[in-house]
Design goal:
Length: 321
């Protein structure tokens, strides 16, 4: 990849990978710098945990073991826990523009502009399916109402602002930037989709949910990753997958937060992972198929899209880096 390509007309999502400058070291440098800045973004969270640890004489593992320390502001912890993704989002935006010399939009969608209506549809469909899977399937005694105005309204504000950035950052990095980069090497869509699906799932292995039932939780993450990836590939962009991802995380933060999950919060309801995972993986498979089916019918997706060429259009002309 010693050449870069300039574009004269709009292309599909995978073809936009050929825009800008694509020498291999540019991809490696962007990945390393994005992850490094993401790690640096954890400094406020580390400082917060250390302050609480010193004050309450608890171990740092208490924040991630399902036994969240009492008398600790969960909203503040959620805010500092999401800050690294804000840092990573702007880092990736700058790096794509500066190192690759191409528009940030090119790693997000194959359309001329971000389609907010698609993102909204993904959000609404995802939220509806999450509600069905929770309130129509789970027994009532598995849910505990815990609404507190002083905790909930700040939570809602944080969730509506920060979680879309967090979920969009993951989508753009994994199913946008990485999947496009892999398509330049592998020259197809299916192999990058499979690799990114696995990478996304592996990146979440440190979440406390895996301590509950490893196999079932891994299946859940794989299903979500497959769903988000298929939506990105078949819809020619990340708008719907960003909406789905945001709806899933906002639901878990605002509506139903497992006490032993990744980020317990002042949500409307609380539960534990055991009754939720009791119905896995079959319920998760059914809800994933339902979500994909609804969206596929709405947007008339074709499975043939998965095998279409990722080669650049004739409008792209190679120039020296």
């Amino acid at each position: 990849m010693r050449q870069n390509l300039t574009v004269g007309t709009a292309e599909m999502f995978f073809q936009k990978a050929y825009e800008g400058r694509n020498a291999w070291w540019r991809w490696l440098l962007t990945i390393v710098l994005t992850l490094s800045l993401w790690l640096l973004g954890h400094i406020p969270a580390v400082a917060f945990i250390e302050a609480v640890r010193q004050r309450l004489a608890v171990g740092a593992e208490a924040f991630f073991s399902g036994e969240f320390p009492p008398d600790v502001d969960r909203n503040l912890f959620l805010f500092v826990a999401l800050l690294p993704f804000v840092v990573a989002f702007f880092a990736l935006w700058l790096l794509v523009r500066w190192i690759h010399r191409k528009p940030f939009l090119s790693v997000i969608t194959g359309r001329p502009r971000f389609d907010w209506s698609r993102a909204l549809v993904g959000f609404v469909v995802g939220l509806a399916v999450s509600a069905i899977g929770t309130f129509a399937i789970l027994p009532g005694d598995a849910l505990t109402w815990q609404f507190s105005p002083s905790g909930f309204w700040p939570l809602l504000a944080i969730a509506l602002v920060m979680i879309p950035i967090q979920s969009a950052t993951e989508e753009i990095f994994f199913r946008g930037y990485l999947m496009q980069g892999l398509s330049l090497i592998l020259k197809n869509k299916i192999a990058p989709l499979i690799i990114v699906t696995l990478l996304f799932s592996l990146a979440h292995l440190g979440n406390p949910e895996f301590a509950a039932t490893y196999n079932k939780v891994l299946v859940v993450y794989l299903l979500l990753s497959v769903l988000f990836g298929l939506c990105a590939v078949m819809d020619d962009g990340l708008e719907i997958s960003c909406g789905l991802h945001a709806s899933n995380n906002i639901f878990l933060a605002v509506v139903l937060s497992p006490e032993d999950g990744s980020l317990p919060s002042y949500s409307l309801f609380t539960t534990h992972l055991a009754p939720v995972l009791k119905y896995s993986p079959w319920l998760d498979i059914a809800l994933t198929v339902l979500t994909f089916g609804v969206l596929a019918v709405m947007y008339r997706w074709r499975f043939a899209t998965l095998t279409e060429s990722t080669a650049p259009p004739k409008a792209l002309q190679p120039v020296q880096v």
